[in-house]
Specification:
mainly alpha; elongated
Length: 52
């Protein structure tokens, strides 16, 4: 292989880049929101076990 052909990187890297470019329009949720929702869910489950 010549040096020109090796510069492109592995084929899997090119596939991952195009995969992420396809989903740029997806709904974005901040990490803080995820933690708060998980905490709220945990609290609801604990209360349900205590009450029920």
């Amino acid at each position: 292989m010549s040096k020109r052909q090796r510069r492109g990187g592995p084929m899997t890297a090119a596939g991952l880049i195009s995969f992420y470019e396809e989903y740029e329009g997806a709904v974005r949720v901040s990490p803080t929101t995820v933690v708060l929702l998980a905490s709220l869910f945990t609290l609801v489950v604990v209360v349900a076990h205590i009450v029920g």
